[in-house]
């Protein structure tokens, strides 16, 4: 449907034919509309910025100025990266590299002009405005109270209901698994009494596979319960690339069956952190499973590790369907899922575990192109920076 033309559009289309009086009236009308829009934007509690592809701030409402400590006189000359340290690294951009044409979500801690936690969304303009180059709307939401509340009351009603459900599911699954284990043991004893033959050997191999799968199911239930229960991580020094290898030993055959290729790239130093091995395995399992389910056969899962002075960044990128802009803000909510089959708990568990390790989870996605989930974790020996006066 074509965009409806306003009276102002019609006037602007004939601006060359306007006399001095009509030009004055038009300028006054534009000034009133600008003042009206400025009032609307300045009433919003969320920070609203407009940046170009290089990150230069072109516009900021009053909340945006206040949140990042930007002076109104500096709009048009200041880069967002200077105001929010670590944001460019979190987005995976090299110095001088332009913003990518995708929607992005991040949670960061700001220390200036005051300490607060903010949730940041990058939304590209669908079409260039006038002769300007590519621009992005940056939405800033202050989530300090939300984060503190979550940290202090981790057993919220939703989490409590999940724990109750998980306990019930674990109990219901545990009984048939125990029964299967007992019957497999009985079958194995009967098999020992049968004279050895190719058929009995094949049956023995099948029994061994069944027993292994029962043990794997039991392990999945155990890992799931450990992941959603609020417990302190068992910190140890880990090379995440080695933990990732352990995970691929388990899911490798499924990736192969689905025709999905995997590319792993470790940039510079090894990703060594202090973390809980089992919890990090759960994070990797969840992210790889999400990527697999988002892709068709022939897709590619690319995992890239990089670092800066303070953090390790681990990116899981898929060539799947991407996330709709309307769903981006809800991907970490319990039970939210766009899949026909799925619990909607995977990313919630990932975020809870990573936060428990002092890190953050970021998401970049473009419909029809794919999704990149970025894990940010503090280095094992992170250096403390002194704030400039």
* Low-pLDDT residue spans: 383-389
Rg over CA atoms, rounded to whole Å, is 27 Å
- Shape from CA axes? elongated
Strand order of the largest sheet: 2-1-5-4-3-11-12-10-9-7
Helix content: 40-55%
Mean pLDDT: 82
Strand content: 15-25%
User: The biggest beta sheet, please?
Assistant: 10 strands, mixed
Q: Count of DSSP E strands? A: 12
- The arrangement of helices and strands along the chain is HHEEHHHEEEHHHEHEEHEEHEE
How far apart are the termini?
55 Å
Helical stretch tally: 11
Give the helix/strand class.
alpha+beta
Structural write-up:
Keywords: ATP-binding, Kinase, Nucleotide-binding, Phosphoprotein, Transferase, Two-component regulatory system. Its EC number is 2.7.13.3. This is histidine kinase. With 389 residues, the protein is an alpha+beta fold. The protein is 44% helix and 21% strand. The chain has 11 helices and 12 strands. The strands form 2 sheets. It has a 10-stranded mixed sheet. A two-stranded antiparallel sheet has the order 6-8. Strand 1 and strand 2 (57-60) form a beta hairpin. Helix 7 (157-193) runs antiparallel to helix 8 and helix 10 (277-294) packs antiparallel against helix 11 (346-356). The longest helix has 37 residues, at 157-193. The N and C termini lie far apart (55 Å). The model is unreliable at 383-389 (pLDDT under 50).
């Amino acid at each position: 449907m074509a965009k409806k033309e306003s009276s102002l559009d019609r006037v602007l289309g004939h601006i060359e034919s306007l006399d001095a009086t009509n030009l004055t009236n038009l300028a006054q009308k534009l000034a009133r509309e600008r003042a009206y829009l400025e009032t609307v934007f300045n009433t919003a509690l969320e920070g609203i910025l407009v940046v170009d592809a290089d990150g230069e701030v072109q516009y900021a409402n009053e909340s945006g100025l206040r949140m990042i400590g930007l002076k109104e006189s500096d709009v048009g000359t200041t880069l967002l990266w200077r105001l929010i340290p670590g944001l460019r690294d979190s987005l995976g951009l090299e110095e001088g590299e332009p913003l990518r044409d995708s929607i992005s979500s991040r949670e960061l801690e700001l220390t200036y002009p005051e300490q607060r936690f903010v949730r940041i969304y990058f939304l590209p303009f669908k079409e260039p405005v006038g002769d300007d180059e590519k621009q992005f709307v940056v939405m800033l939401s202050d989530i300090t109270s939300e984060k503190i509340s979550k940290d202090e009351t981790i057993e919220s009603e939703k989490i409590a209901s999940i724990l109750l459900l998980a306990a019930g599911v674990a109990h219901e699954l545990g009984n048939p698994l125990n029964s299967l284990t007992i019957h497999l043991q009985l079958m194995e004893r009967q098999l020992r009494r049968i004279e050895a033959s190719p058929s009995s050997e094949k049956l023995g191999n099948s029994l061994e596979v069944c027993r292994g799968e029962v043990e794997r199911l039991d392990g999945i239930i155990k890992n799931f319960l450990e992941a959603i229960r609020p417990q302190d991580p068992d910190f140890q020094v880990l090379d995440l690339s080695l933990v990732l290898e352990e995970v691929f030993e388990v899911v490798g055959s499924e990736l192969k069956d689905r025709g999905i290729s995997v590319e792993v790239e470790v940039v510079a130093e090894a990703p060594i952190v202090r973390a809980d091995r089992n919890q990090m395995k759960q994070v990797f399992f969840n992210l790889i499973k999400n990527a697999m389910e988002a892709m068709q056969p022939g897709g590619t899962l690319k995992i890239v590790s990089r670092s800066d002075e303070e953090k390790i960044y681990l990116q899981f990128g898929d060539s799947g369907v991407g996330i709709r802009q309307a769903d981006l803000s809800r991907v970490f909510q319990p039970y939210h899922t766009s899949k026909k089959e799925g619990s909607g708990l995977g990313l919630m568990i990932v975020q809870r575990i990573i936060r428990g390790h002092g890190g953050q989870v970021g998401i970049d996605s473009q419909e029809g192109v794919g999704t990149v989930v970025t894990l940010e974790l503090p280095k094992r020996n992170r250096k403390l920076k002194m704030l400039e006066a």
